[in-house]
Amino acid sequence: MNLLLLEEQDFIAPERVRLSGRRLQHMLQVHQVQLGTSLRVGQVDGLMGEGRVLELSDTKAELEVCLSEPPPSKLPLTLLLAMPRPKMFRRILQHCASLGVADIVLLNSYRVEKSFWQTPFLQPEVIRENLLLGLEQARDTVLPQVRIEKRFKPFVEDRLPALLGDSLGLVAHPGNYPACPRAVERPVTLAIGPEGGWIPYEVDKLKDAGLQPVQLGERILRVETAVTALIARLS
Amino acid sequence: MNLLLLEEQDFIAPERVRLSGRRLQHMLQVHQVQLGTSLRVGQVDGLMGEGRVLELSDTKAELEVCLSEPPPSKLPLTLLLAMPRPKMFRRILQHCASLGVADIVLLNSYRVEKSFWQTPFLQPEVIRENLLLGLEQARDTVLPQVRIEKRFKPFVEDRLPALLGDSLGLVAHPGNYPACPRAVERPVTLAIGPEGGWIPYEVDKLKDAGLQPVQLGERILRVETAVTALIARLS
């Protein structure tokens, strides 16, 4: 981790935190901290700065922290993502958090296997944990919002147009469509389908809601690769 | 897999192949092929086309194949990659093959842990297997070339300048450098460091060999995410 993320409950005084568990082990084993070591720290959904180790044992560390810098800006990007295969889902959450995606909507689609919705990785604390891993990596503090929409049609018909607002709406889909634009300077709402892609009905509904189909070339990418490639291209 | 890749030894006649093992299981379980089913096929390092199932049992399938289409073009990209952590290495090989990278050089770096070079994933048949997974995904047949350079200095001093040739040489490195260019139309040689980045000596040596440092913004990405993001941005 490139940033030690602090939770509200870690604070034992306004500028002092007490840590144990995973973060303590990481500090000891990877950063090999000692008394007096300085580390980059940030408060979840808050400011970033420096922390200095004041007390240290095998079971806990106490740090004095000074938080004054804002986290990096988020990308003005809302990602509508057909619920991926669970193993890939965790990594996609980490990629999205590290790339700076602000909002993620997990959407059903005809080709999403029903079992994907049963994964324990959809539990809020597991989603949060994976997003935090991405934030720690990228040196960001602000958790992306994740919403779950298990019914495609009511979401796309009733809620997507308002969510889209003035943003540029795109749906990534292989076919005879314009190439995905690059370095877009306005907010973007981007829909990425499941393995095997959206079915034509879904592309039509997304078009009706205001999204334009775009493609990334003749190569068919795994969802995980496509998510990072599309975000990098748009941003 | 979006393309059934055929090896030379699968051919039992000029237009007939016999398959068993992983590819047969995939055909049966995922594609649920039957007698007469048509599939997209391609010959490793050769042409792509259609295959039709003529015989089928639990232990083998025979297909009549017609190969006439060229595979998609490769990106004119040589990737110099500090040897990644083994688990990530396998996925990076798959990402690179599916994105169309032509050449990969696995390079040592100060921050590459020595144990990474001991991984069984570096065995030629395991490298090949992971590249094939990426090609099957993307519908490509041409294996990227993978070279292993365990000594940084002799490679960078003696062989990199010739490898670079007329291509645009870039080294991805966080810092006060120009932003990584987009949609570059000429061949590119791109160096991507290990977790923790290149050390300053290595950046200097890569610069001496003709590579320009470029950065991707203030977010620090995992190597796996950075590889895909940089390739997507350049191509």
Automatic annotation (TrEMBL), chains A, B:
Superkingdom: Bacteria
One example GO MF annotation: methyltransferase activity
GO biological process: methylation
Reaction(s) the record says it catalyses: uridine(1498) in 16S rRNA + S-adenosyl-L-methionine = N(3)-methyluridine(1498) in 16S rRNA + S-adenosyl-L-homocysteine + H(+)
Keyword Cytoplasm: yes
Pfam family, one: Methyltrans_RNA
CDD domains, A to Z: RsmE-like
SUPFAM superfamilies, per database record: alpha/beta knot (SSF75217)
Occurrences of domain Ribosomal RNA small subunit methyltransferase E methyltransferase (ranges): 72-234
Protein localization: Cytoplasm
EC number of the protein: 2.1.1.193
Signal sequence interval, chain numbering: none
Keywords of the record: Cytoplasm, Methyltransferase, rRNA processing, S-adenosyl-L-methionine, Transferase
Entry-linked NCBIfam families: PRK11713.5-4, RsmE family RNA methyltransferase
Similarity comment: family membership: Belongs to the RNA methyltransferase RsmE family.
Protein name, per record: Ribosomal RNA small subunit methyltransferase E
